[in-house]
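To close the chapter, one final illustration. This time we ask the reader to focus less on the individual chains and more on the assembly as a whole: which components sit near each other, and how the overall shape emerges from the parts.
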Amino acid sequence: MIALALLLAPSVAAAQGGDPRPVEPNTALEVSLDAGYERAGALDGGQAGFDLAARVALHPAFEVGGGWGARASWASLDGGAGGARVGLPPLRAWIGTGHVGGEWRFALRVEGGIGTQLLDAPEASSNGEQGFLTLVGEVGVVTDLFRPRLTLRLGAAYSGALAWAGVGELRLAIELGPASWPARPFAAARFLVSTDLGHSARPVVGAVIDIDTSSLALAVLGPGSATGQLVELQLTWRLPL
Amino acid sequence: MRAWSWLPFVVLLGCAEVGPECAPVRPPAVTGVDTEGGFVSREGPVVPRAVNSYPLLDHAGRDRWDDVAAILDQAHALGRPIIRTGAYMTAGENPGRLRDADGTIHEEGLRRLDRVIRMAEERHVQLLLITANHWPNYGGAPAVLDAVAPGEDLPAAAFYSDPRAIAHQQEFLRALVGRTNTETGLRYARDPTIFAWELVNEARCDDPGRCDEDTLPDWAREMSQTIRRAGARQPIAWGGQGYLGQHGEDLRDIARVGSIDILTVHLYPDLAGALTLEPGRGRDRLLTAAAQGRRRILAAAEVARASEQALLVEEAGWRTEGPERDAERALVLGAWARAAAEVGAGYAPWMIAEPGRPDYDGYLIRPESEPATARVLRCE
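The assembled structure is written out below.
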């Protein structure tokens, strides 16, 4: 029944490169869920997150947006201590610009976030940063049969007294299948380099599913050597407005 | 009253478990490092179980001998009978200072150090004595530079490059290592209570006008040879943070010096992995800190193994606030302890002190009120 509904659902062709969000400025609500399991030596752990974001294209070439969420995690040392907690990632906002030229899509966004110090509750922070700033550049190609997407992200975060951290990420993805298909597979590779964790690569596979006018992306991320992450599931639902 | 002080109680739905108790560990005294880079005791191979506590000489200078005893007893009770502590206090008014502001040896301070060493011996605790500090705490490198070049306002990098500072530090090392303890009659150079001599705490050489890739290795060679020539039988430890090419320190170059027995790593991942997922999501700081620390320990162990030197993870600190402080610290320090054990490295969490001491920087471990962390110190 569900499969039939999916087959009959009209495609909105918004997703690009396995990401339900188009490269170019757009207006939508997005809900993301993720959960992962990891192991670092004798430590088992997992984390799950929820994020709600809204973006508004005030002009075809200009977008603003913001989002917030919560994260839960647990960790357990073999035969030793263990614990679980829930924390808040930074409240974030961005501005972006973009351009559509034939099959090509371009975007550039500047995103900043402020940690829970804003709420005078630094201990509620999910990972300790007081703020972060990232620059994201994206290029996508939209054809009827495939939709590749290249994302480059450069960022820095500040945690107060002692530490800055920097990160660079390159994500290369391709979504396959005619845009009219209500469910389309994609594959991606993420290459990361960060000042605190060194470099690593992660494989990603998944599918984008159109449901009425909205898009749902299910992604399975493979091992991340820098962190001990073994598997992670991400679900992103985009509702165009 | 903070406007949002209720927030943690709503958000932090934390829970924690301490873990099962363990049999008390009573490791034998470390007697040295073998030719393959393994720590040894009279009973055979051993992995040093250590802990940091910098205020010993400070307390000794202020006649707070009960506090000195309390710290030594605490280390022993935790099954970590090696304390890493400073033996470099310079200038200031504390009678425990080992050098005056003009650089002359302060005999009264050395006598107080004599007594600290005797008290440690009585409690079967060994001391890892740090002989210099890059940072200005207790004088450190800046005080030495003021002594050898008054009025010149030399930068910290000069401590490793200025001939006057190098010669002065060598003179200090000869006086310290060659000393005979007035309380025990033992020469420091042969005293088994002194587990090792450490060259400097957290050396950095960032000044391009004074530093190149050879500056710290050359300095380390000079100092370690000075200690050896002064007759020291104990191992010699580096004391750096274990960087592989940052702040003028490359542990691989230090390993090639040849006259150092123990390579060192310091771990303080206050911000770990904050951006390794999509912007705004971040990662859980505990899991990332555990992974990051493990990677650094394994990388340093690779250097140590290749050069057949021992490895000591000699500062491992986790700063956190809130009701989950004890559980968080136990997880992170415990994970690093396991990683150090994987590679046979010694391990020294930062840090314990006398009961009632204020937590000035968020790193103080209070075993009496932090059961999960205390268990890690005892059992891991």
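The first strand of chain B starts at residue 15 and ends at 17. DSSP finds twelve helices and 14 strands in chain B. With these observations in hand, you are ready for the problems at the end of the chapter.
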